[in-house]
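Hi everyone, sorry if this is the wrong subforum. Our group has a chain we'd like a structural model of before ordering constructs, and none of us has done structure prediction before. Sequence below.
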Amino acid sequence: MDKRRLGYNLLLVGLAFVALAHTALSFVFETGLATVGGAVAILALVGLVVVNL
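Answer:
Right subforum, don't worry. Here is the predicted structure as tokens:
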């Protein structure tokens, strides 16, 4: 694995973690932004699949 792919993986994993935490906190505090966090998490996970093909 080269350094660029590793960097992309770490960036996308971090983004997915923040999005999932945002979604969980949105449910706890009832802010109504769970769809945004869910969408970003799904896009980050799809990005991980694309980077690792």
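For your construct planning: The helical segments are 3-29, 34-51. The longest helix spans residues 3-29.
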